[in-house]
Amino acid sequence: MLDLLVLRTLARHGRLHGFEIAEAIRAASTDVLQVEEGSLYPALQRMMLKGWIRGEWGRTAENRRARYYQMTAAGRKRLAYELSTYRRVTAAITRVLRPA
Amino acid sequence: MALWRRLRTLVGHRRWTRELDEEIRLHLDLRTAANRAAGMTPDAAERAARAQFGNTAALRERARDVWAVRWFEALGEDARYACRRVVGDRGLTVAVVLTLAIGIGGNTAMFTLIDRVLFRPPPGQAPEELVWIATTERPSQRLRSSSYPDYLAVRDAKPGMRGVAAFTRVPLSLGGGMPERLDGALVTANYFDVLGHPPALGRAFHAGDDAVVVLSDALWRRRFGGATAILGAPLVINGHPMTVIGVAPPGFRGLEIEPADVFLSIAAVAVAMPGQPELLTSSDAAWLQMFGRMEANGALKRVQAGLDVVAYARAQTSTDADALRGFSVQPLRGAVDPQNRTDAVPVFGLLTIVPLLVLGVACANAGNLLLARGLGRNQELAIRRALGASRGRVVRQMLTESTLLSLAGGVVGVALAYALLLLVLRLAELPAEVAASFRPDVRGVMMSLVLSVAAVFAFGLAPALALTGRTHASSNQLMQAASRSDVARRLRGAFVIAQVAASCLLVVLAGVLHRSVATTLQANPGFNIHDAMALSYDLPLQGYDVGRRAAFDGELLREVRRLPQVESAALVSSVPLGGRFVGASLLWDGAPGAETGHSLSVGMATISAGYLTTMKIPLRRGRDLAEVDADGAPLVAIVNENLAARLWPDGEAVGRRLRLDGDDRWREVVGVAADGKYDDFHESPRPFVYLPQAQYSLPWQTLVVRARADSGELTAAIREIVRRLDDNVPLYDVMTLEQVVGNAVDRSRGIAWLLILFGSIALTLAALGLHAVTVHAVMLGRREIGIRMSLGARPSQVAAGFLRQGLQLASLGLGVGGALGAAIAMLLASEVAGLRTADMAPYVGSAVLVIVVTSVASGLPAIRAARTDPWKAIRSE
Fold first, then answer.
1. B575 to each of B135, B678, B750, how far by Cα in Å?
2. Which residues of chain B make contact with A26, given a CB cutoff of 8 A?
3. Spatial distance between the Cα atoms of B652 and B636, rounded to a whole number of angstroms
4. What is the tens place of the pLDDT at every residue in B616-665?
5. Fewer beta carbons within 10 angstroms: which end of chain B, N or C?
6. ipTM exceeds 0.85
7. Does the predicted TM-score (pTM) go above 0.90?
């Protein structure tokens, strides 16, 4: 789930570091999704391992060192896949939950 | 790709951790700043940020876990920890490593031996293409050497093969100047080519080359100074002039273990093996060993099918003998030809069992030691478990330690194997270059590695599982649990007794044999060994016929007898105890047996007149041989007392008649000589017959000379005489009779030393086993020791208690081993003469040795037990 959110965020914004991704998710979900912020980082590591995102060290506007993440081509494919899966699952749940 | 990334983070672990920390810190700072911007106080902002973030440490671990290299890192941790423990507990480490080294080393040595003899592929290019081709006897499928017609048939067809060659080994005389007897090889012209080792210098043979030789590198350097002008140089082989056309590569040993000195082409067979013209034509003369090189992607099955066709085709057109023979192709590995290999395999198979048993014992001992030591670490174990280490983790860590010990044992084991092989081969009296090819090589080291790893599971797993079985709240409980396994304790005790018994047995036997050897030297071999020499020569090899031989022999004897130092001289086919014992089957007249064809197996030698005097063998009855017993005169023989007593127990042997089985000429006994030793020192008295050389011919000849002179001068003088008669005839096996006898004794001594070697190894293992058991007992009884000491027991009493326990086990083992040893010695005494079983020295010596060793083995832990601090012991819960 987190993977999907991160990938979508990166698709929308391009190049972000960890904090920015957390903020973007919070903002986009209008504070509904409050994930334990730290759990972002293991997820980012996992996605780096799988090759869906790429991390590069750069500098923030305040000149602090930060690791900026970008989606890769494989990540884009994964995003498409996850999105379609998500939509299918949601549609199925909706059908089940339809008021009688 | 993922794997690559994983490995990268493994290597850059520190950097990875630093980067992640930096990322997390940035996040927290930014969150804190955002909180402050939202109006919180700095402290609250920070706390909120942390709370929102989560448990940093746990998250860091989860992030790390993603890369799943944890187990690698855990391994590294385990290894470091294991190193610390191993170095810290030096006594135990030494004991375990030594035990394992003995077990692994023994197996490596045996493996190297068997590998070299049976399995190692021959050196050079594409060794898997080389195959043996043996002739088979049709109905039985028994493998044997091949005849020359066999070789021609296979060579011409060469089914599925690029080339077929053959060879045999022959002794050769190198003449001229300093004549020398060589170990030669007779090979087909394509021998070097099929093997893929062309001569380093010059060329190999062409078909029909009958007057050329290829030297071995060793001979070229030794005798011809390694001169490059050797090509084209003349030499004399077996009296025939030859030319050197090549030198083999250094270290070349063909397909065998012992390298040949010189190579001759098969076309020169009449020179190398004179007087046997049927060798090239007879299908019954099996004297060649065939081998071939298969096509590049050849298959054994195809070759065998092709060979079967050859055999079938031959059976249609040939004599009966060939119709019964086929061919068999065998993969070429090791150094034994296929007909002997089938016999060797079961023997070696049995031999592998012994070192494996030893390894089993070693692993059991090592396991005991680890278990014993583990009992003392129970507290540490409990703490680790309490801190959250899973059982698997602890077991893994213990196994890592065991692996470290095992690998160390393997390394020492390889060194031990090397030393063991050197010792054993030296005792077997193999020449140095042969012994060199038995060194443990890469395959041997790999074997050690495999054994080390296997051993870990054999000795490390059980203690690890046992020690971590249940978390024991106190050592007390653990030890109660351990001591409840009384059966296990008894088993361990019995095990130690068995080990001590086995080593005692070997040591006792070694001692008995050694004593016998020592006293045997003083025994009478039946002839006077002092001031006498033996020198052998081989005239049939030079192509001498019977008449020329007789002339040469006669002239030689005359000249030698004329030498001033010489007291007496004579000729004999082979000198007693010289290792060339000849037997024969005898028939005789006088009841019982002449009619019924009963025969007696006897030893035989042909002698010249004056032999008995020269050797100072007493004549009991009748007369010695004389000049009158010549060719054409009435046939005579001399027998020894044993033969006379067996065949004619009632009366006089002189005047009776005997004949050799297969020869219908009767010979009259004219004298009876005293008994003696003929084949080896440990034989029981045996019958022996002497025939005059003028009346019966054997191909071997040795000159025996009795002279009170310096052996060097005498040899030089005799060599001069021989040189004048024929300067191409070498003298070989030149030694004093004392040396002849010494060599015979050395063979038995070698066996005694081997037994001592193995006995020592077994004793070391047994001592280590006893040590383990004592340490175990000390560990188990720690609390009890503490109590007793605090109640007033003196340290020496405590130590004495354990020492006594250890000695009890040892003496039981000693008793069993000694009794078995005595029984075996007595059994052997009936087979082997000269074995003195009544001599007590070996038994006393072995007992002392075993007691001393086992005292030390159980004494060391006992002393350590005595130094226990009673309070610490009781309180170590």
1. 36, 8, 22
2. none
3. 16
4. 999 999 999 988 888 888 999 999 999 998 888 877 889 888 888 888 88
5. N
6. yes
7. no
